[in-house]
Amino acid sequence: MDWGMKNRLSSLMGPDGKCMFMPIDHGYFLGATSKLEKPGETIKPIIEYCDALFVTRGVLRAAINPDDSKPIILRVSGGTSVVGGDLANEGLTTSIKDALRLNVAAVGLSVFIGSDYERQTLLNLGKLVDECEEYGIPVMAVTAVGKELEKRDARYLSLCCRIAAELGAKVVKTYWCEDFDKVTEGCPVPIVIAGGPKFDTELPVFEFVRDGMEKGAIGVNLGRNIWQHEHPVAMAKALHAIIHKNATATEANDIFNDTKNG
Ligand code: 5RP
After folding, report:
1. C-alpha–C-alpha distance, residues 247 and 262, integer Å
2. Quick one: which of 80, 39, 78 has its CA closest to 62?
3. How many domains, in total, are found in the chain?
4. pLDDT > 90? residue 262
5. For ligand 1, what atom is nearest to the CA of residue 54?
6. How far is the CA of 228 from the centre of ligand 1 (A)?
């Protein structure tokens, strides 16, 4: 791997090789998502716990301080919305030239495997990898399922992750599922665990993250379960402990409660 590619990839992780990515890209298809109306304000108290931000160029330029930022994973796919025809019908929205101008550490796009737009989104990935390899920029593929959350089982997710890696993604973001080791074992590049809609309680979040880490994930890309929570700092601190300090789910829950109670 070339120096630039390697350097960008390692900038996304802690010295332990683990990572906590903070996605705030939801507006690209959801509009002004609850608690993310002012993304710059949302991340202020929690940014210290994360290793990189996953964000679109619009929010990056409008809301993130360039003098004091974490490494950026730039969301470069989109073109659909939650009120449109099909979320899977994505294209590439941002040029590599703009990604370079923004000095990003990586770019990210969604692939929708099994959807009507499987081919299109996989070709988006291939094209993006071709362009990014020229400049040493890693591509993170997001194995998206649109509104069909029930698709998230090991057989399907393992197929998605493997295909994304085969097409050149350097990191794959996918959902946690039962038998998550089947997903990580079949994927030759690092996997980060996605979050999904906010859970009602905290412990199940800590449990699936801990299980995913034990089964081979290198970290998380988890947004709503942190910044939509009533106690975002407590959530961020607890998850950071699982990822970077090898805390168990119970220990993370204690950290959450201690932080919440001041
Ligand atoms: C949307 C995304 C988001 O980054 C992703 O959903 C992660 O955030 P959350 O933990 O809130 O689900 O890639 O496709």
Report:
1. 20
2. 39
3. 1
4. no
5. 4
6. 12
**Gap between the Cα atoms of 76 and 86, Å rounded:** 18
Ligand 1 atom with least separation from CA of 24? 4
Q: Are 212 and 193 in contact (CB under 8 A)?
A: yes
CB distance 172 to 159 below 8 Å? no
Which residue reads 């994973």 in tokens?
73
Answer whether residue 152 is part of any domain: yes
Helices 232-245 and 249-260 cross at an angle (nearest 10°) of 150
Mutation test residue for ligand 1: of 19, 21, 24, 25, the one with most atoms within 8 Å of CB: 25
| Nearest one of 21, 17, 14, 8 to 220, comparing CA atoms | 21
Q: What is the pLDDT of residue 248?
A: 98
The string of pLDDT tens digits covering residues 121-147 is 999 999 999 999 999 999 999 999 866
Instruction: Reply yes or no on whether the pLDDT at 150 is more than 80.
Output: no
User: Structural domain of residue 117, as residue ranges?
Assistant: 3-197
Would you place residue 148 in the very low, low, confident or very high pLDDT band (cuts 50, 70, 90)?
Answer: low
Q: What CATH number is attached to the domain comprising 111?
A: 3.20.20.70
Model pLDDT for residues 155-200, shown as the tens digit of each residue: 999 999 999 999 999 999 999 999 999 999 999 999 999 998 889 9
In angstroms, the Cα distances linking 98 to 74, 104, 211, 222 are 10, 9, 37, 25
6 is catalytic: no
Q: Which residues form ligand 1's pocket by a CB distance below 6 Å?
A: 23, 25-26, 54, 110, 142, 144, 194-196, 221-225
